[in-house]
User: Fold these one by one.
Assistant:
Number 1:
Amino acid sequence: MSTNNQQLLKGSLSVIILKLLEDREKMYGYEITQKVKELTAGDMTITEGALYPALHKLEAEGLLTTETQVVEGRVRKYYSLTKDGHKQAASRISELTAFVENLQTLLNLKPSF
């Protein structure tokens, strides 16, 4: 993925995380990175260096809660949405969708010369 795409992804990362957690009850970090990669057929990848600060910020905002579980001898930290997280997910997804639609309109403009 190009550097420009990485910048675009970084700007919408919190919305992507909220959407994934809205669709699933809980996920751990690596699972989030793999789901994004799978859903975009590898076109988008989220690095741990971008993901974990975004998760911690959402947690600090009170949008995520965490739960630690031992799975096959390994400790996993699962993230899930709080009640406020569900509200914010709907709001931020709606905002990003509207932005993308407006961007699409602008990108599809025909030259007027």
Number 2:
Amino acid sequence: MIRFVIIALIVLAAWVLALNTIRLFRGSKIDWTGIAFMVGFVVLAFYLRHATGMGG
């Protein structure tokens, strides 16, 4: 039961963070190139970790 409460709190925190992030993005100019590079870098890191078995 405690596990469900902890998971529910984590989901709630993620939801609030997502809403605040969306609200912030709507009100400002965003450098989408930088965000795309950052996301691509993280995805590439996870892929290379999976493909080579190195890291972590």
Number 3:
Amino acid sequence: MTTWFRTYYEDEDLWLYFEADDEGWAARQVEVRGQDLRPVKAASLAEVLHLRDHADLAAMGRYERQYGVLAEGPMEGWQDQSQAAEISSEEFERLWAEARRALGGSA
């Protein structure tokens, strides 16, 4: 079952939002920083895998500079993180679309 959740890193004033797949791995990730909630990451596993299989290292580097690096590994224990909470798929989709626009890409 897909889940959507958020956590907060107070030291960096950074909100992390995840869409986790059935196995608990990050399928998409959005990060926003500061009081103005400036997007700094909006990465997708499907896009990363497509680039890995159909492009070169330069394309992957461009993707990572534009959208950031997706978290690897299962998202176990997120519930124990600061201000962790499940969110709705609609909230995640809204954040995803806003972050992608801000980072120069399509939702």
Number 4:
Amino acid sequence: MQAWRVHTTGEPREAMRLEEVPEPVPGEGEVRLRVLAANVNFPDALLVRGQYQIKPPLPFTPGVEICGETEDGRRVIANPSLPHGGFAEYVTAPARALLPAPGTLDDAEAAALHIGYQTGWFGLHRRARLQRGETLLVHAAAGGVGSAAVQLGKAAGATVIGVVGGKAKARTAEELGCDLVIDRTAEDLVARVKEFTAGRGADVVYDPVGGDAYTASAKCVAFEGRIVVVGFAGGTVPTPALNHALVKNYSILGLHWGLYAAKDPAAVLACHTELTRLAAEGLVKPLVSERVPLAAAADAVQRLADGTTTGRLVVVPSAPAAPAADGAGR
């Protein structure tokens, strides 16, 4: 079968190589899946760069989230067992963790429903306890993770402020239903939030970016507000001023979804059931901006890492072949 493999960590276009390899053999408690679609996530870029908290043995195949087909024909969502990740034709995955793919979503949409939406649901509901009528501020609102939080916030009855970088991404955030869109490259984020909320600020801030985004969040979070720290896609890990949190009475909440998968799998299943319901009712639908063939996976991971994408890029192995990007598939 074909699979992208990383022999030496580095930038995705340079480090990922498309190779012919044997199909992976399931271990105890695992099943083999045919990959129908593999969503591109920021952790994939970190894995390739050697910067993720999990470091699979070299060589490995990235791709942490797929929609796949079991040998008995079931369509499922799964997290592949590294080092045999999803940017391949076949993977292995723990049998106990397979989730049924919603029938209302196609393969690419189903592949993108899992990590980003689960992270959003746990972040907004279990950690921040978002309430109907509250104001939710979402950074990187036009991206894969941010767009999921926007949809989940609207489904929960919140007023949603989307923060984006650039006019094209602002249009996407508007189409997602944000009540206010702020282009951080052209507007004063803090002033706009305070103006929109009559000085109160945002009750909940959803931050997958870090760096300057977090700094701005602390300046415009409401009394007894909650800042949910989801990741650091901006590349800078902020150092919170805890004295500031004390005098303004707000909470800083960390969220690592993988811990729920490890420590409370029943909650993950319950969340998936809720997400399936929301998808069936048309309240959430992954924003898949591109479906790319397997040959273009390295380029897709690189573009996500560079912050140039909108919505989700999904690798579909059965898609028509396209020329490999320069430096890929060597």
